[in-house]
Amino acid sequence: MTESNSIPKNELDEVFEILKSQDRRILCLLLLQDEIKNTSDALKNTYWHDKETQISVYHHHLPKLNDAGYITWDKHTDTIQKTDKFTHIKTLYEILQKTSKEPFSTEK
Q1: Which CATH class is domain 16-99?
Q2: How large is the average pLDDT for residues 75-80?
Q3: Every domain of the chain and the residues it spans
Q4: Between helices 22-32 and 86-99, what is the axis angle to 10°?
């Protein structure tokens, strides 16, 4: 891994904490695939078909990613943007994808 795509050691625990939740992993994967540009895109994903999970995504997972600095989420304009820090998540997904026997999926 080159220096440009490495995750700083002091931020590694935070990346793992963010990816601990399956719903946040799916959310990050959708962001990596550029399938989410706004809150509506996130909530209409077929993975989150029940209202309880949609509420959790809106009130817990999006704010957690925003507060940690991986995304910028503006509730007023309904926009979600990846920040430069999101490259840490991308780097980890790339490493895991190379060693995984199956591709990552947004399916349960």
Answers
A1: mainly alpha
A2: 91
A3: 16-99
A4: 100
